[in-house]
């Protein structure tokens, strides 16, 4: 699916930052720990460079935090001793009362609070989750044994008898999870809808009489299901309004298909108009559009890097980024999710040691990150990534598939959200499939970059051009977001989405659920953990006319199964209240309220060989 990640591992360090404390109306502290070498005052423009590590001790009239906090900026309300922040008694009391959540901000790098939480999995829940998967695995082997001796009917694909001595076409072990675990809860996915994927949808009812191996439609339609799963962030997925009218008009004039590539006879005036509009929207020199968001990543990364280059990829990057990196032939090294210490260590090692065996310098070093991570709901620490990118002279590839339109005061994505200069990002990638209610993707950057991709990108040379009605949908929605249509509808949608996100996240946390991600992220993961609860949650919510997306292994770590809600500006407060009421009821029914309101400070997570230890500088 959209959030599958082939190289997910159990996260030992999510972020690499520390837990700061608010002082004088804003937050001070370290937002990710750029390492000993990167923490100097010159690199960050701070007025205080960290000194040697001190010991934790309580000062008169104050209190120290659970772990030392490196100071990358001046502290107005609190003491600084030995390079660590000592907070006041009032601030410490607020922290002890749970009023201060997992907040990180790296001095002058951040112009706004950065609130992101990943509550620790309760030990009992983790143990029971492993036990549940163990039981399912044992019964899976038992059923495979019964199938082998034809005691149980075998539904899955197998080789013909005369092919048994050849290399297996269907790898038996690789399909074990699909046969014995996924099939039990398969009815929660691929549900066919028969309406516009707006705030409410109609779902075709289906039944299975062979334990989810096949489905039959009953002929009934489940009406007005509240849609909490689609990426319709700004509510442009609709069949009425200016976007629909404009697309219908273009459909009459241009038709549906182009039947050619951009380089041949498929370059329409609408494509040129769209690319100029996208470049202006992003604040870059030029942009190029593609017919498929997944291919925008997987087919363009191989055009940018090759053998002799180094790719540094976040461990939770989307499958399209992973595939593009693998197809490029470049060396790939993975850093811990949003962990700036891990990223800087890889950058340092790349520069110091160069390529393996030859020790030659890397031709290019490309950092791959996403704006919003579609399974975690976290936002990239872009100010720190840019600081590292500049310091070590690397290139930055930013995937804004989920953040473009959904973040920032003007909807221009994570760059707008942090108030950064678009020129600091070398390659800006995004899709039109979410906030714009359309299809396709784009890449923006320097004119030289775009001109190069027009002749070297497989997506540009071989892929069919975007459909004209789809192009018009993007143009109309983007003009609406920027206010070029003469209305304030786009601005209102952006504000409504932000309000819905904060309200929904706050209510879920107050109910006692464990919620991952950033407080401003429209992707809201609710942790389920146990495999049996994945299917149960999806089914119980559908019974209550709420459509949700549930996700499990291998798209997530094995003990971190979850339900993923996607908020939309089209959701009214009444819809959200209805959904929250049902979620609360199902949470009590399935015992999903695991939260103990205790977030894990990022530096309390164990380090390994890819992260920095606390060292004296």
From TrEMBL:
Top class in the EC scheme: transferase
Topology versus the membrane: Single-pass membrane protein
Keyword Transferase: yes
Aminotransferase class I/classII large domain sequence ranges: 223-583
Organism: Sousa chinensis (Indo-pacific humpbacked dolphin)
Keywords in alphabetical order: Acyltransferase, Endoplasmic reticulum, Lipid metabolism, Membrane, Pyridoxal phosphate, Sphingolipid metabolism, Transferase, Transmembrane, Transmembrane helix
GO cellular component labels: endoplasmic reticulum membrane; serine palmitoyltransferase complex
Protein's GO biological process: ceramide biosynthetic process; sphingosine biosynthetic process
Enzyme Commission identifier(s): 2.3.1.50
Protein's name in the database: serine C-palmitoyltransferase
Family to which this protein belongs: Belongs to the class-II pyridoxal-phosphate-dependent aminotransferase family.
GO MF assignments: pyridoxal phosphate binding; serine C-palmitoyltransferase activity
UniProt KW Cell membrane keyword: no
Obligatory cofactor(s): pyridoxal 5'-phosphate
Pathway per the UniProt entry: Sphingolipid metabolism; Lipid metabolism; sphingolipid metabolism
InterPro entries associated with the record: Aminotrans_II_pyridoxalP_BS, Aminotransferase_I/II_large, AON_synthase_class-II, PyrdxlP-dep_Trfase, PyrdxlP-dep_Trfase_major, PyrdxlP-dep_Trfase_small
Location within or outside the cell: Endoplasmic reticulum membrane
